Predict the structure.
Amino acid sequence: MSTFCAQIVRSEVITNRTKQRKAEEELEKHHTVDNNLSMGMKVAAVAVGGVVIGTLTLGIGLIPYMTVVGITAVASGAGVGKLTC
């Protein structure tokens, strides 16, 4: 009877170790997927940040040109206004 109980215990131990290994493998897979998703989100955030910074920089770069065009338009408008008065 004790040999039979020992076999059952060994069988249960082997089953539990197998389940534990499978659980560890699944956990490792989840960690890998989570890390990949995290990296993907970081890359997307950097890309969006780059677009926003580029847009803002483009806007700042255009300010001098817009100022020149605006001053020219005001001067032209003032000159036309003086001519029509």
User: Anything to note?
Assistant: The longest helix spans residues 2-84. Helices lie at 2-84. The chain has a mean pLDDT of 74.
